[in-house]
Design brief:
By secondary structure, the protein is mostly helical. It has a domain of 173 residues: Zincin-like (2-Layer Sandwich), CATH 3.30.2010.10. It is built from 23 helices and 5 strands.
Length: 446
Protein backbone atom coordinates (compact mmCIF):
# COMPACT_ATOMS: atom_id res chain seq x y z
CA UNK A 1 0.00 0.00 0.00
CA UNK A 2 1.73 3.08 -1.28
CA UNK A 3 0.41 5.47 1.36
CA UNK A 4 2.38 3.61 4.07
CA UNK A 5 5.63 3.38 2.18
CA UNK A 6 9.01 4.74 3.06
CA UNK A 7 11.90 3.96 0.74
CA UNK A 8 10.02 1.47 -1.45
CA UNK A 9 8.77 -0.21 1.64
CA UNK A 10 7.58 -3.42 0.02
CA UNK A 11 11.23 -4.20 -0.61
CA UNK A 12 13.15 -2.50 2.18
CA UNK A 13 11.28 -3.11 5.42
CA UNK A 14 12.59 -5.66 7.90
CA UNK A 15 9.65 -7.59 9.31
CA UNK A 16 9.92 -9.14 12.75
CA UNK A 17 7.57 -12.05 13.45
CA UNK A 18 6.41 -12.02 17.05
CA UNK A 19 3.74 -14.19 18.63
CA UNK A 20 1.44 -13.98 15.60
CA UNK A 21 1.94 -12.77 12.00
CA UNK A 22 -0.48 -9.90 12.69
CA UNK A 23 2.01 -8.45 15.16
CA UNK A 24 4.93 -8.29 12.75
CA UNK A 25 6.82 -5.03 13.14
CA UNK A 26 9.01 -3.21 10.70
CA UNK A 27 11.96 -0.92 10.48
CA UNK A 28 11.46 2.12 8.26
CA UNK A 29 14.61 2.46 6.18
CA UNK A 30 14.99 5.80 4.45
CA UNK A 31 18.41 7.30 3.64
CA UNK A 32 17.20 10.90 4.03
CA UNK A 33 15.61 10.38 7.44
CA UNK A 34 18.52 8.29 8.73
CA UNK A 35 21.00 10.95 7.61
CA UNK A 36 18.93 13.64 9.32
CA UNK A 37 18.87 11.62 12.56
CA UNK A 38 22.64 11.19 12.32
CA UNK A 39 23.03 14.97 12.12
CA UNK A 40 20.79 15.44 15.15
CA UNK A 41 22.54 12.73 17.17
CA UNK A 42 26.12 13.73 16.35
CA UNK A 43 26.59 16.54 18.91
CA UNK A 44 25.19 14.55 21.84
CA UNK A 45 27.07 11.40 20.86
CA UNK A 46 30.32 13.33 20.66
CA UNK A 47 29.60 14.90 24.04
CA UNK A 48 29.09 11.36 25.38
CA UNK A 49 32.44 10.25 24.01
CA UNK A 50 30.71 7.92 21.54
CA UNK A 51 31.42 7.58 17.83
CA UNK A 52 28.62 9.01 15.66
CA UNK A 53 29.76 6.84 12.77
CA UNK A 54 29.43 3.66 14.83
CA UNK A 55 25.98 4.25 16.34
CA UNK A 56 22.98 3.88 14.04
CA UNK A 57 19.69 5.64 14.72
CA UNK A 58 16.88 3.51 13.30
CA UNK A 59 13.13 4.11 13.06
CA UNK A 60 10.62 1.45 14.05
CA UNK A 61 7.23 1.72 12.36
CA UNK A 62 5.08 2.03 15.47
CA UNK A 63 2.71 4.87 16.42
CA UNK A 64 3.39 4.55 20.15
CA UNK A 65 5.96 6.71 21.93
CA UNK A 66 9.20 4.94 22.70
CA UNK A 67 12.95 4.93 22.17
CA UNK A 68 15.50 2.45 23.45
CA UNK A 69 18.91 0.89 22.93
CA UNK A 70 19.33 -2.75 21.93
CA UNK A 71 23.12 -2.91 21.98
CA UNK A 72 26.05 -0.49 21.91
CA UNK A 73 25.59 0.27 18.20
CA UNK A 74 21.87 0.94 17.76
CA UNK A 75 19.36 3.44 19.09
CA UNK A 76 15.77 2.73 18.08
CA UNK A 77 13.14 5.46 17.87
CA UNK A 78 9.45 4.78 17.27
CA UNK A 79 7.92 6.70 14.38
CA UNK A 80 5.20 7.87 16.78
CA UNK A 81 7.74 9.50 19.06
CA UNK A 82 9.46 11.34 16.21
CA UNK A 83 6.13 12.69 15.01
CA UNK A 84 5.21 13.80 18.54
CA UNK A 85 8.38 15.82 19.11
CA UNK A 86 7.94 19.55 18.60
CA UNK A 87 11.56 20.62 18.27
CA UNK A 88 15.00 19.34 17.39
CA UNK A 89 16.06 19.76 21.01
CA UNK A 90 13.25 17.51 22.26
CA UNK A 91 14.32 14.70 19.97
CA UNK A 92 17.97 15.30 20.83
CA UNK A 93 17.12 14.99 24.53
CA UNK A 94 15.73 11.51 23.86
CA UNK A 95 18.87 10.56 21.93
CA UNK A 96 21.07 12.00 24.70
CA UNK A 97 19.24 9.91 27.32
CA UNK A 98 19.70 6.71 25.29
CA UNK A 99 23.36 7.65 24.75
CA UNK A 100 23.55 7.84 28.54
CA UNK A 101 22.52 4.20 28.81
CA UNK A 102 25.26 3.23 26.34
CA UNK A 103 28.03 5.33 27.87
CA UNK A 104 27.15 4.18 31.39
CA UNK A 105 27.45 0.53 30.36
CA UNK A 106 23.89 -0.38 31.28
CA UNK A 107 23.69 -2.90 28.44
CA UNK A 108 26.81 -4.81 29.43
CA UNK A 109 25.07 -6.43 32.39
CA UNK A 110 22.17 -7.76 30.33
CA UNK A 111 21.94 -11.56 29.92
CA UNK A 112 22.20 -11.93 26.15
CA UNK A 113 23.14 -15.06 24.23
CA UNK A 114 22.82 -13.55 20.75
CA UNK A 115 25.71 -14.06 18.38
CA UNK A 116 27.91 -11.20 17.28
CA UNK A 117 25.82 -8.49 15.58
CA UNK A 118 28.37 -8.30 12.77
CA UNK A 119 26.72 -11.41 11.30
CA UNK A 120 23.33 -11.28 9.66
CA UNK A 121 22.02 -13.94 12.03
CA UNK A 122 23.30 -12.16 15.12
CA UNK A 123 21.97 -8.81 13.98
CA UNK A 124 18.63 -10.42 13.18
CA UNK A 125 18.48 -11.77 16.72
CA UNK A 126 19.14 -8.36 18.25
CA UNK A 127 16.65 -6.64 15.96
CA UNK A 128 14.02 -9.31 16.64
CA UNK A 129 14.40 -8.54 20.34
CA UNK A 130 14.10 -4.86 19.53
CA UNK A 131 10.84 -5.55 17.75
CA UNK A 132 9.47 -7.27 20.83
CA UNK A 133 10.12 -4.32 23.07
CA UNK A 134 8.69 -2.05 20.38
CA UNK A 135 5.48 -3.99 20.77
CA UNK A 136 5.46 -3.07 24.44
CA UNK A 137 6.66 -6.37 25.84
CA UNK A 138 3.97 -8.59 24.35
CA UNK A 139 6.45 -10.48 22.21
CA UNK A 140 8.72 -11.74 24.98
CA UNK A 141 8.48 -15.41 24.03
CA UNK A 142 9.33 -14.88 20.37
CA UNK A 143 12.10 -12.46 21.25
CA UNK A 144 13.48 -15.02 23.65
CA UNK A 145 13.70 -17.50 20.78
CA UNK A 146 15.56 -15.01 18.65
CA UNK A 147 17.93 -14.10 21.45
CA UNK A 148 18.50 -17.73 22.38
CA UNK A 149 17.43 -17.07 25.99
CA UNK A 150 14.45 -17.48 28.30
CA UNK A 151 11.22 -15.64 27.48
CA UNK A 152 12.01 -13.18 30.26
CA UNK A 153 15.18 -12.10 28.48
CA UNK A 154 13.46 -9.22 26.73
CA UNK A 155 12.26 -7.68 29.98
CA UNK A 156 15.66 -8.13 31.61
CA UNK A 157 17.42 -6.71 28.59
CA UNK A 158 15.28 -3.69 27.82
CA UNK A 159 13.66 -2.54 31.06
CA UNK A 160 15.92 -0.18 32.96
CA UNK A 161 16.03 0.17 36.72
CA UNK A 162 15.25 3.49 38.36
CA UNK A 163 18.93 3.82 39.24
CA UNK A 164 19.87 3.39 35.59
CA UNK A 165 17.22 5.91 34.52
CA UNK A 166 18.55 8.47 36.98
CA UNK A 167 22.10 7.91 35.76
CA UNK A 168 21.03 8.23 32.11
CA UNK A 169 19.08 11.40 32.96
CA UNK A 170 22.14 12.96 34.57
CA UNK A 171 24.41 11.94 31.72
CA UNK A 172 21.96 12.98 29.02
CA UNK A 173 21.48 16.43 30.53
CA UNK A 174 25.25 16.85 30.77
CA UNK A 175 25.70 15.81 27.14
CA UNK A 176 23.07 18.29 26.01
CA UNK A 177 24.60 21.15 27.97
CA UNK A 178 28.06 20.32 26.62
CA UNK A 179 26.64 20.32 23.07
CA UNK A 180 24.90 23.67 23.64
CA UNK A 181 21.39 22.16 23.46
CA UNK A 182 18.78 23.45 25.90
CA UNK A 183 18.26 20.71 28.57
CA UNK A 184 14.79 22.14 29.24
CA UNK A 185 13.75 20.12 26.18
CA UNK A 186 14.17 16.94 28.25
CA UNK A 187 11.65 18.29 30.76
CA UNK A 188 9.26 19.01 27.90
CA UNK A 189 9.56 15.40 26.74
CA UNK A 190 8.92 14.10 30.25
CA UNK A 191 5.84 16.32 30.47
CA UNK A 192 4.30 14.08 27.81
CA UNK A 193 4.69 11.01 30.02
CA UNK A 194 3.74 12.50 33.41
CA UNK A 195 1.21 10.43 35.30
CA UNK A 196 2.03 7.23 33.38
CA UNK A 197 3.26 5.44 36.52
CA UNK A 198 -0.23 5.73 38.04
CA UNK A 199 -1.85 3.87 35.13
CA UNK A 200 -2.25 0.08 34.87
CA UNK A 201 0.64 -1.52 32.97
CA UNK A 202 -1.59 -2.32 30.00
CA UNK A 203 -2.43 1.37 29.56
CA UNK A 204 1.07 2.77 29.96
CA UNK A 205 2.95 3.98 26.92
CA UNK A 206 5.83 1.78 25.77
CA UNK A 207 8.33 4.39 26.94
CA UNK A 208 6.95 4.26 30.48
CA UNK A 209 7.16 0.46 30.54
CA UNK A 210 10.82 0.40 29.53
CA UNK A 211 11.88 3.64 31.28
CA UNK A 212 10.49 3.75 34.84
CA UNK A 213 9.00 7.15 35.67
CA UNK A 214 8.41 8.86 38.99
CA UNK A 215 7.55 12.27 40.37
CA UNK A 216 10.99 12.44 42.00
CA UNK A 217 12.69 11.73 38.68
CA UNK A 218 10.72 14.54 37.02
CA UNK A 219 11.75 16.97 39.76
CA UNK A 220 15.40 15.97 39.36
CA UNK A 221 15.16 16.68 35.64
CA UNK A 222 13.70 20.10 36.36
CA UNK A 223 16.50 20.85 38.80
CA UNK A 224 19.17 19.72 36.35
CA UNK A 225 17.66 21.81 33.57
CA UNK A 226 17.66 24.87 35.81
CA UNK A 227 21.30 24.26 36.71
CA UNK A 228 22.30 24.18 33.04
CA UNK A 229 20.43 27.35 32.09
CA UNK A 230 22.29 29.77 29.84
CA UNK A 231 24.36 27.14 28.04
CA UNK A 232 22.10 26.71 24.99
CA UNK A 233 23.16 27.99 21.57
CA UNK A 234 21.18 28.40 18.33
CA UNK A 235 21.30 25.29 16.15
CA UNK A 236 19.91 26.19 12.75
CA UNK A 237 21.29 23.03 11.13
CA UNK A 238 19.59 20.84 13.73
CA UNK A 239 16.32 22.70 13.24
CA UNK A 240 16.52 22.09 9.50
CA UNK A 241 17.26 18.37 9.72
CA UNK A 242 14.56 17.88 12.33
CA UNK A 243 12.03 19.58 10.03
CA UNK A 244 13.17 17.43 7.15
CA UNK A 245 13.04 14.10 9.03
CA UNK A 246 9.68 14.77 10.64
CA UNK A 247 8.32 16.32 7.44
CA UNK A 248 9.22 13.37 5.25
CA UNK A 249 8.01 10.79 7.77
CA UNK A 250 4.68 12.53 8.22
CA UNK A 251 4.29 12.92 4.45
CA UNK A 252 4.49 9.15 4.06
CA UNK A 253 2.44 8.26 7.12
CA UNK A 254 -0.35 10.84 7.12
CA UNK A 255 -2.93 11.37 4.40
CA UNK A 256 -1.80 13.26 1.27
CA UNK A 257 -4.56 15.82 1.86
CA UNK A 258 -3.24 16.49 5.38
CA UNK A 259 0.31 16.87 4.00
CA UNK A 260 -0.63 19.23 1.19
CA UNK A 261 -2.41 21.60 3.58
CA UNK A 262 0.61 21.68 5.94
CA UNK A 263 3.53 21.17 3.54
CA UNK A 264 5.07 24.59 4.20
CA UNK A 265 4.69 24.70 8.01
CA UNK A 266 8.44 24.23 8.64
CA UNK A 267 9.39 27.38 6.74
CA UNK A 268 11.95 25.60 4.52
CA UNK A 269 11.13 25.80 0.81
CA UNK A 270 12.85 22.54 -0.15
CA UNK A 271 11.14 20.63 2.67
CA UNK A 272 7.80 21.99 1.49
CA UNK A 273 8.47 20.82 -2.07
CA UNK A 274 9.70 17.43 -0.89
CA UNK A 275 6.55 16.89 1.16
CA UNK A 276 4.38 17.96 -1.76
CA UNK A 277 6.22 15.53 -4.03
CA UNK A 278 5.52 12.66 -1.63
CA UNK A 279 1.85 13.60 -1.33
CA UNK A 280 1.38 13.89 -5.11
CA UNK A 281 3.17 10.59 -5.60
CA UNK A 282 0.91 8.84 -3.14
CA UNK A 283 -2.07 10.20 -5.03
CA UNK A 284 -0.51 8.73 -8.19
CA UNK A 285 -0.13 12.18 -9.72
CA UNK A 286 3.35 11.44 -11.01
CA UNK A 287 3.71 14.53 -13.19
CA UNK A 288 3.00 16.82 -10.21
CA UNK A 289 5.30 14.78 -7.98
CA UNK A 290 8.23 14.90 -10.41
CA UNK A 291 7.74 18.63 -10.94
CA UNK A 292 7.83 19.29 -7.19
CA UNK A 293 10.89 17.12 -6.52
CA UNK A 294 12.71 18.72 -9.47
CA UNK A 295 12.05 22.13 -7.94
CA UNK A 296 13.45 20.91 -4.62
CA UNK A 297 16.53 19.55 -6.39
CA UNK A 298 17.01 22.93 -8.09
CA UNK A 299 17.23 24.51 -4.62
CA UNK A 300 19.70 21.86 -3.39
CA UNK A 301 21.42 20.47 -6.52
CA UNK A 302 24.07 18.58 -4.52
CA UNK A 303 21.60 16.80 -2.25
CA UNK A 304 21.69 13.04 -2.94
CA UNK A 305 18.61 12.33 -0.83
CA UNK A 306 16.32 14.44 -2.98
CA UNK A 307 17.62 12.61 -6.06
CA UNK A 308 17.01 9.31 -4.24
CA UNK A 309 13.40 10.33 -3.61
CA UNK A 310 13.03 11.20 -7.29
CA UNK A 311 14.32 7.74 -8.12
CA UNK A 312 11.76 6.18 -5.76
CA UNK A 313 8.89 8.16 -7.28
CA UNK A 314 9.91 7.13 -10.80
CA UNK A 315 10.58 3.50 -9.83
CA UNK A 316 7.21 3.09 -8.14
CA UNK A 317 5.61 4.76 -11.17
CA UNK A 318 7.28 2.07 -13.34
CA UNK A 319 9.51 4.54 -15.16
CA UNK A 320 12.48 2.24 -14.66
CA UNK A 321 15.01 3.80 -17.02
CA UNK A 322 14.46 7.30 -15.62
CA UNK A 323 14.58 5.92 -12.08
CA UNK A 324 17.92 4.23 -12.77
CA UNK A 325 19.30 7.55 -14.00
CA UNK A 326 18.08 9.38 -10.89
CA UNK A 327 19.59 6.77 -8.58
CA UNK A 328 22.87 6.93 -10.50
CA UNK A 329 22.97 10.68 -9.86
CA UNK A 330 22.34 10.10 -6.16
CA UNK A 331 25.16 7.54 -6.01
CA UNK A 332 27.58 10.06 -7.54
CA UNK A 333 26.78 12.46 -4.71
CA UNK A 334 26.74 9.82 -1.94
CA UNK A 335 28.86 6.92 -3.24
CA UNK A 336 29.03 5.11 0.10
CA UNK A 337 25.42 5.37 1.27
CA UNK A 338 24.21 1.75 1.49
CA UNK A 339 20.50 2.50 1.12
CA UNK A 340 21.03 4.59 -2.01
CA UNK A 341 23.36 1.91 -3.39
CA UNK A 342 20.69 -0.70 -2.67
CA UNK A 343 18.09 1.26 -4.61
CA UNK A 344 20.48 1.77 -7.51
CA UNK A 345 21.32 -1.93 -7.57
CA UNK A 346 17.64 -2.84 -7.66
CA UNK A 347 17.07 -0.40 -10.52
CA UNK A 348 19.97 -1.94 -12.46
CA UNK A 349 18.38 -5.36 -12.02
CA UNK A 350 15.19 -4.09 -13.65
CA UNK A 351 17.31 -2.98 -16.59
CA UNK A 352 18.93 -6.41 -16.94
CA UNK A 353 22.39 -5.16 -15.94
CA UNK A 354 22.95 -8.17 -13.69
CA UNK A 355 26.73 -8.10 -13.18
CA UNK A 356 26.82 -4.37 -12.47
CA UNK A 357 23.83 -4.72 -10.17
CA UNK A 358 25.63 -7.47 -8.24
CA UNK A 359 28.69 -5.29 -7.73
CA UNK A 360 26.62 -2.34 -6.52
CA UNK A 361 24.52 -4.51 -4.22
CA UNK A 362 27.61 -6.17 -2.72
CA UNK A 363 28.96 -2.73 -1.94
CA UNK A 364 25.67 -1.86 -0.24
CA UNK A 365 25.62 -5.08 1.79
CA UNK A 366 29.21 -4.59 2.93
CA UNK A 367 28.30 -1.19 4.38
CA UNK A 368 24.96 -2.13 5.95
CA UNK A 369 23.77 -5.70 6.32
CA UNK A 370 20.29 -4.77 7.61
CA UNK A 371 18.53 -4.19 4.29
CA UNK A 372 16.69 -7.39 3.37
CA UNK A 373 15.81 -5.97 -0.04
CA UNK A 374 19.52 -5.95 -0.85
CA UNK A 375 19.86 -9.57 0.29
CA UNK A 376 16.90 -10.57 -1.86
CA UNK A 377 18.16 -8.71 -4.91
CA UNK A 378 21.68 -10.08 -4.47
CA UNK A 379 20.32 -13.62 -4.28
CA UNK A 380 18.45 -12.97 -7.51
CA UNK A 381 21.57 -11.56 -9.20
CA UNK A 382 23.69 -14.58 -8.20
CA UNK A 383 20.94 -17.02 -9.23
CA UNK A 384 20.71 -15.41 -12.66
CA UNK A 385 24.46 -15.97 -13.04
CA UNK A 386 24.23 -19.62 -11.98
CA UNK A 387 25.85 -19.23 -8.55
CA UNK A 388 23.39 -21.29 -6.49
CA UNK A 389 25.64 -21.37 -3.42
CA UNK A 390 25.70 -17.61 -2.96
CA UNK A 391 22.01 -17.36 -3.84
CA UNK A 392 21.20 -19.87 -1.07
CA UNK A 393 23.49 -18.11 1.44
CA UNK A 394 21.88 -14.72 0.85
CA UNK A 395 18.41 -16.23 1.10
CA UNK A 396 19.43 -17.84 4.41
CA UNK A 397 20.71 -14.52 5.74
CA UNK A 398 17.51 -12.81 4.67
CA UNK A 399 15.41 -15.33 6.59
CA UNK A 400 17.69 -14.95 9.62
CA UNK A 401 17.26 -11.20 9.51
CA UNK A 402 13.49 -11.58 9.70
CA UNK A 403 13.59 -14.13 12.53
CA UNK A 404 12.54 -17.11 10.37
CA UNK A 405 15.35 -19.28 11.69
CA UNK A 406 13.98 -22.66 10.53
CA UNK A 407 13.92 -21.51 6.90
CA UNK A 408 17.25 -19.77 7.42
CA UNK A 409 18.82 -23.01 8.60
CA UNK A 410 17.54 -24.99 5.63
CA UNK A 411 18.96 -22.54 3.09
CA UNK A 412 22.21 -22.20 5.04
CA UNK A 413 22.71 -26.00 4.98
CA UNK A 414 22.18 -25.95 1.23
CA UNK A 415 24.66 -23.09 0.85
CA UNK A 416 27.18 -24.91 3.03
CA UNK A 417 27.10 -27.90 0.64
CA UNK A 418 27.59 -25.70 -2.43
CA UNK A 419 30.20 -23.18 -1.26
CA UNK A 420 33.97 -23.85 -0.99
CA UNK A 421 34.62 -25.20 2.49
CA UNK A 422 36.48 -22.69 4.67
CA UNK A 423 35.67 -19.69 2.46
CA UNK A 424 34.27 -16.51 3.99
CA UNK A 425 30.89 -17.22 2.38
CA UNK A 426 30.92 -20.78 3.80
CA UNK A 427 31.69 -19.35 7.26
CA UNK A 428 28.73 -16.97 6.94
CA UNK A 429 26.55 -20.01 6.29
CA UNK A 430 27.90 -21.64 9.48
CA UNK A 431 26.93 -18.52 11.47
CA UNK A 432 23.35 -18.88 10.29
CA UNK A 433 23.30 -22.63 10.97
CA UNK A 434 24.52 -22.14 14.55
CA UNK A 435 21.95 -19.42 15.24
CA UNK A 436 19.12 -21.48 13.69
CA UNK A 437 20.01 -24.48 15.85
CA UNK A 438 20.13 -22.33 19.00
CA UNK A 439 16.70 -20.91 18.17
CA UNK A 440 15.31 -24.43 17.64
CA UNK A 441 16.63 -25.58 21.04
CA UNK A 442 15.02 -22.60 22.72
CA UNK A 443 11.67 -23.37 21.10
CA UNK A 444 11.86 -26.94 22.38
CA UNK A 445 12.59 -25.77 25.94
CA UNK A 446 9.43 -23.66 25.87
Amino acid sequence: MQHLRLFAVCFSLIAFTLTTPARALSLLRDPDIEYALKQLAEPVLKAAGLSPSRINILIIDDPSLNAFVADQNHIFVHSGLLLRMQSAAMLQSVLAHEAGHISNGHLLRRPIAARNARTAAGLGAILAGAAAVAAGGGGDAAAGAALGAQSTATRLFFVHTRAEENAADNSGMRFMAHAGIDPQAAVEVMDIFRGQEALPLSRQDAFARTHPLSTDRYRVLQRLATGYQGKARPHSEADYWFARAKGKLSAFQRSPKWTLTRAGESGYADVKLMRQAVAWHRQQKTENAVKAINQAIALRPNDPYLLELKGQILMESRQFKAATSAYAGAVKLAPDNPLILGSYGHALLTQGQIKTAQQVLEKSRARDGRDIRVLRDLAQAYAKQGNRGMASLLTAERYAMTGHFKDAGLHAERASDLLPRGSSAWQRAQDVIVTAKAAAKTRKRR
